[in-house]
């Protein structure tokens, strides 16, 4: 068999040589980089066998690159993608698939199913003539590209309070500009505090999670925590009691009153019935304590809720206390640590859309 004639790139100018060198140093596309190296090596006088040996490519590839560069110049270095086979499912059909996926089977008269699986959705699309055939994986890719994902259903309790905006603005005003002659306190209950093992998170070796006992028994009953957040200092104050009636609540208010004598207390709280008991209202009116009630279903406006979330996360989650004394001690230790780090509370939801509300929105979440 006769030896194939040698092929070399045409003579390169000094500027073309510099440009090739720059491409070999900066090109991010691997195809363009490989082609530029082939051309440069050929321009340096290396033969096709030498180039194929170093670059680990075929003779035909090297020859095609050299011929293409000789014909089209640097344009031959850029890969010309054909784009592949045109999609079998048009963009319009893909949009329709995503719209159907966001419905529920009951809307199509399919009884006994509250949600789509990929299989049932694919069968429905074929039965409705939306597509002739589609695999579950293809359907998954279409939904992902269309921004439709598998999500957990959430709930939202809409407020029916006709004075929602007025009450919210009163609370926000107290947060933003606490009265100079008073103190703003957020109060709420946390409970029930039972002795069940609580799931949590901790650092562990991979594949070896910490184990807690599983039980449905609730020994020794439950306890209730009543707590107050002082916005001026950021500190928490609390009591743990067996019940959370108006008597326990009023007793807790009296401890707050004794803690800050001579100051008017503005106590922000939800609409739990013991908070509104006539005995509580009468005592508050007689002792310079203003009871500021949150809007109905607006407990998320209470600043102490975030403190309760942190307390659950750090002091309770991942624990398995065997007595209320042990659990109460853990809560007390956390509160002492937290109060040592406390700072005044300011800038509540400063950039939140609630600041611009003029009416209660139909859908908040």
Automatic annotation (TrEMBL):
User: Which Pfam family is one of this chain's hits?
Assistant: DDE_3
Q: Which residues form the Tc1-like transposase DDE domain?
A: 183-322
Listed SUPFAM superfamilies: Homeodomain-like, Ribonuclease H-like
Q: Which Gene3D superfamilies match?
A: Ribonuclease H-like superfamily/Ribonuclease H
Q: Which NCBIfam families does the record associate with it?
A: transpos_IS630
This protein is called: Transposase
Which organism does this record belong to?
Answer: Streptosporangium lutulentum
What's the source species' lineage? Bacteria, Bacillati, Actinomycetota, Actinomycetes, Streptosporangiales
């Amino acid at each position: 068999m006769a030896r194939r004639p040698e092929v070399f790139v045409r003579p390169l100018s000094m500027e073309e040589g510099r440009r090739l060198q720059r491409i070999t140093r900066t090109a991010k596309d691997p195809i363009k980089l490989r082609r530029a190296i082939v051309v440069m090596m050929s321009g340096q006088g290396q033969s096709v066998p030498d180039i194929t040996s170093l670059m680990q490519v075929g003779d035909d590839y090297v020859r095609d690159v050299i011929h293409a560069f000789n014909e089209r110049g640097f344009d031959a270095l850029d890969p010309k993608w054909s784009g592949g086979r045109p999609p079998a499912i048009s963009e319009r059909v893909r949009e329709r698939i995503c719209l159907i996926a966001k419905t529920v089977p009951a809307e199509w008269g399919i009884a006994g199913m509250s949600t789509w699986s990929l299989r049932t959705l694919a069968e429905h699309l074929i039965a409705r003539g939306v597509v002739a055939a589609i695999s579950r994986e293809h359907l998954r890719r279409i939904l992902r590209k269309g921004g439709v994902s598998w999500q957990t259903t959430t709930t939202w309790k809409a407020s029916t309070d006709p004075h929602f905006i007025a009450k919210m603005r009163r609370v926000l005003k107290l947060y933003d500009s606490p009265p100079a002659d008073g103190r703003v306190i957020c109060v709420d209950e946390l409970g029930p505090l039972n002795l069940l093992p609580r799931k949590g998170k901790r650092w562990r070796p991979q594949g070896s999670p910490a184990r807690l006992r599983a039980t449905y028994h609730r020994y020794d009953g439950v306890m209730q925590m009543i707590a107050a957040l002082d916005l001026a200092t950021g500190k928490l104050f609390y009591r743990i009691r067996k019940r959370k009636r108006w008597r326990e609540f009023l007793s807790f208010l009296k401890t707050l009153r004794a803690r800050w004598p001579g100051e008017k207390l503005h106590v922000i709280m939800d609409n739990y019935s013991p908070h509104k008991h006539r005995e509580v209202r009468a005592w508050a009116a007689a002792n310079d304590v203003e009871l500021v009630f949150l809007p109905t279903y607006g407990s998320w406006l209470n600043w102490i809720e975030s403190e309760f979330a942190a307390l659950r996360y750090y002091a309770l989650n991942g624990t398995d206390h065997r007595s209320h004394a042990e659990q109460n001690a853990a809560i007390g230790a956390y509160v002492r640590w937290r109060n040592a780090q406390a700072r005044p509370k300011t800038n509540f939801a400063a950039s939140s859309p609630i600041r611009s509300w003029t009416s209660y929105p139909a859908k908040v979440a």
